[in-house]
Every structure is written in structure tokens, then in C-alpha cells.
Amino acid sequence: MIEINNLTKIYKLNAKKKKELKTNKDVKIAVNDVSFTAHPGEIFGLLGPNGAGKTTTLRCVATLLRPTSGNVKVCGYDTVEDGQKVRDSICFLTNEIKLDEHFSTDYLFNFFGKLKDMTDEEIAARKEELFGVFGINDFKDKKIEELSTGMKQKASIAVNLVNDPEVVIFDEPTSGLDIVTAKAVLDYLKSLREKGKTVIVSTHIMSEAEKLCDKIAMIIGGKKVIEGSIPEVLEQTGMPDLEDAFFKLYMENQKENEEAAK
């Protein structure tokens, strides 16, 4: 389970950042008082445009960032006070995580399995499952530097899932993947739900979220603007699909910001 309570993350801005962001403000509020809970046996979607605060939220869950205020708990452990216990319980998948180019997928899978205190038998069983699901066996002995972008993505996903974690955090699960690999990833996430795992994904692809997620929260400008099951969100917004619901909420948020700036 993931419990996010009044999470706020504020960054101080130096002169260079102010220029990049075209602002005179000294701080940027990346996430603003966000709360929600993702339960076991559920795929929870964090939706919003680029720069909305989705990745910052997930990095706080994964212990990579410390909240400015509020708190995050994973499997009952506080991400600040019990960081190592949280890291033992999760898998955080992002396109920014790169595998060492000089080693093979097979070697890295074994290496990280040992780091997670897995036995040889446990590693072998997980390897058989994951290499089969993601079609890795044909290139498992090649160095990462020899692989295509899609192959590297598959390898990274498999290696990060080596210890069969209770909580899977996936930032933009199909970004950069070909359609066949993307389908395999989404199907695997669904299988994790059936096993009772807690899965949280961020995406800006509304059609993907509609097919995948049990519940969603939309974040716009760092703030949560709506939360619920897909039918609940559509009912609340009066829209026929998530894309239309998002654009309605986005335009309402833009209007509020313009009025507040007057």
C-alpha cells in the first residue's frame, strides 16, 4: 500500500533556473498538498501533462526525494524515517535508470538478485519468468551497449523486477517502447494486480490509463484536481472519456490561474 498525506515539494530557484522558467519567484512548488492512497491488488494512475508534478511525487514515494512537508508511507514504512525498508519493498522503473553498458542482461540480473539477498534458485526462477515475458533470452548474453533502445528498456524492466517487489512504481510505462513491447509491459502490470501487488503508474496518455487503471488522480500544476475510479471521474466531469475530462479540468485550472494573477 502507498499512502500519500498532504505531500508538498518545494524547490529553491537560483538565477539560472529563474531564467529557464521565466520567473522572478524564488521557489517552485512542484507538488502542492497532494494526498491519495493506492491499495494492494490495484493499479493506480497518476495523470497529468508534462511538468505537472507526477515524477516528483513518484520520486518522493521511491525515497529519491525528501518531502518539504507531508509524508509518504509504503507498506506502512515512512519514506524518510524507514527509507531502506521502503526500498526493500519497491521497484521504481523510469526511463532515466540506465544499466551498466559493459555487462550483459544475464550478468546484471544475477548481480542485482544477489544484492537483494536472493538464492540462486530464486534468481533462476525469476529469470525464467521475466526473460520469457519480455523476450530477453535471445539477447541475454549481449552487452547492454550492443542492444537497441527497446532491448535496453526490456532489460532494465526485468532487472528492476528481480526480487518480485510488493510495490511497483512505473513512471511513464510505455514511453519509448514499440507497440509489441508496450503491450507486454501493460499485460505484465495487469498480472501484478492479479497477484495482489500495489502498482502505481504515471502517464500523460489518457487512453492508456483508461484501459489499465482501477483508480486515477489527475495532477495539474502540482495540485490534485480529481481522484476516483474511471466511471467516477467521468461522472464528476460529465465527459465521455478521460481525455475530454482532462482537457475540461485543465482549462478550468488555467482560467483559475489567470484570474488569480489579475
Helix percentage range: 40-55%
Shape: globular
- The CATH architecture term of the domain at 2-89 and 215-261 is 3-Layer(aba) Sandwich
Alpha-beta content class: alpha/beta
How far apart the termini lie comes to 42 Å
Uncertain segments are none
Strand content range: 15-25%
Q: What quaternary form is this? A: single chain
Order of helices and strands: EHEEHEEHEHHHEHEHEEHH
Number of helices: 10
Give the SSE layout:
Blueprint: E1 2-12, H1 15-21, E2 27-38, E3 42-47, H2 54-61, E4 69-74, E5 77-78, H3 83-89, E6 90-93, H4 105-115, H5 120-133, H6 149-160, E7 167-171, H7 179-194, E8 198-203, H8 206-212, E9 215-220, E10 223-229, H9 230-237, H10 242-261
Parallel strand pairs: 3-8, 3-9, 6-7, 7-8
Antiparallel strand pairs: 1-2, 1-4, 4-5, 9-10
Helix pairs in contact: 4-5, 4-6, 9-10
